[in-house]
Amino acid sequence: MITYTASETDRGKRLDSFLHERMPEFSRSRLQDWIRGGRVLVGGRAAKSSYTVRGNEEIAVEPAELTPLKARAEDIPLKILYEDESAVAIEKPAGMVVHAGAGVHDGTVVNALLHHFEHSLSTVGGDLRPGIVHRLDRFTSGVLLVAKTDPAHRELARQFAAREVEKIYLTLVEGVLTGSGAIRTPISRDPKTRARMTARLATGRTALTEWEVVERFTQFTFVKIRLGTGRTHQIRAHMASIGHPVAGDPLYGAKRSAFGRYFLHAHRLGFTSPATEQRVLVESPLPDDLSAWKDSLEA
Question: Are 248 and 262 in contact (CB under 8 A)?
């Protein structure tokens, strides 16, 4: 157990910031893991990362054993939608994290990829993210593209950056929409809730979300989304900004669903194969749980 005593000059600091100043050898995310796990006590009691230091507390830390800095292979089933010498497209299930982070180190897409493809993955992303060119949120299902070689990784990353990759999503949003539209407001980190993004500020990274109504229900609308950019939580933040949050997404103001996830699926991905130089279109049908959810709605 390591003990620190906060001074008057520490007053007003977040607990995780206070610890990071005194333990700079550890990342803030690792310190936050320890806080969430009850390994940090303020005055003998567990606290949250956002706890505001008062300046007279005794703060005790019990460091956890460091997790491996290299992902390990795990025998986890993967559904392959497309594969050639340069890339592979898989169907990511909802609930599966793409790579280690935020307290998750096992059961990820990367762990599964290492088992199925061993050393046939690009190394550009480092030992924790082999092959990973882009990501999907944990509870977003659908097509995920993975690079098998370093040259392929760089070329696919270029295509994503140049907006040459077609990205089509299917989502259910709260409320009734008609027609189609485009949202161009910038996206930035929400200053009040760091776990989410916001499109309600004047600053941020440029973002483009084009939407088109596919089917309307009494209280919901089934929408096809075309992404012009790839910002964190882009669809979720943009749709919430126009008053139609993704169904089942309480982080962005929607009611919690009985299906244990929000309704967002990466339906189609179009790219040019670095191996064949041919255009490839990969599709993933709406998964059973989202189909059942949609079928349960009143028209």
Answer: yes
- Residues contacting 242, CB < 8 A, separation 6+: 183
Strands, E, within the chain: which ranges? 2-5, 40-42, 45-46, 58-61, 79-83, 87-92, 141-147, 166-174, 180-183, 188-189, 197-198, 209-216, 220-227, 264-272, 279-283
Residue whose C-alpha is closest to residue 263's, from 248, 275, 276: 248
Q: Which CATH architecture has domain 2-61?
A: Roll (3.10)
> How many beta carbons lie within 10 A of that of residue 36, not counting itself?
14
Regarding the domain with residue range 79-295, which homologous superfamily does it belong to in the CATH classification?
Answer: Pseudouridine synthase (3.30.2350.10)
**CA–CA separation, 299 and 292 (whole Å):** 14
Q: 279-283 and 264-272: which strand pairing?
A: antiparallel
Predicted pLDDT at 224:
98
Chain centroid to Cα 274, Å, comes to 26
Q: List residues with catalytic annotation.
A: 137
**Using one digit for the tens of pLDDT, what is the confidence trace for 236-276?**
999 999 999 999 999 999 999 999 999 999 999 999 999 99
Compute CA 197 distance to the chain's CA centroid, rounded to the nearest angstrom: 11
> For the chain, which residues make up each domain, given as ranges?
2-61, 79-295
